[in-house]
Amino acid sequence: MNTNQGVCCNHLMNSTKLLKEKCMSKIEERLTELEIRFTHQARLIEELNEVVTDCNQSIARLEAENGRLREMVKSFAPELAESPDE
Questions:
Q1: CA neighbor of 83 nearest in space, from 74, 63, 39
Q2: pLDDT at 83 over 90
Q3: What confidence tens digit (pLDDT) does each residue in 6-62 have?
Q4: How many Å apart are CA 86 and CA 69, to the nearest integer?
Q5: Secondary structure class of 86 (helix, strand, coil)
Q6: How far apart are CA 32 and CA 27, in angstroms?
Q7: What are phi and psi of 83, to 5 degrees?
Q8: What is the distance between the alpha carbons of residues 36 and 28, in angstroms, rounded to a whole number?
Q9: Is the confidence at residue 81, as pLDDT, over 70?
Q10: Residue 5: what pLDDT?
């Protein structure tokens, strides 16, 4: 191998190494960004789950209260057990 070929080969190997390092750096940056997004989304899902759970508990409580009030109305005026619009 002559000197020019050796220099060219070394330059090519160095260029390949730099390109590989840049690619790995980009991949690591993207991976870090994805991990951050995943963590944020997981936190949001947990918060939304708490809101949905609270809403379901409120709905159950309101349904029970509505049932008690309907029974109370029935006991006061049995003939008005159901409103005309039901």
A1: 74
A2: no
A3: 666 777 777 788 888 888 899 999 999 999 999 999 999 999 999 999 999 999 999
A4: 16
A5: coil
A6: 9
A7: -75, 155
A8: 12
A9: no
A10: 62
For 6-74, what is the HEC assignment?
HHHHHHHHHHHHHHHHHHHHHHHHHHHHHHHHHHHHHHHHHHHHHHHHHHHHHHHHHHHHHHHHHHHHH
24-26-32 Cα angle (round to 5): 100
Asked if residue 81 lies in contact with residue 74, where contact means CB atoms within 8 angstroms, the answer is yes
Q: How many CA atoms lie within 13 A of 46 on its CB side?
A: 6
> What does DSSP assign to residue 85?
T
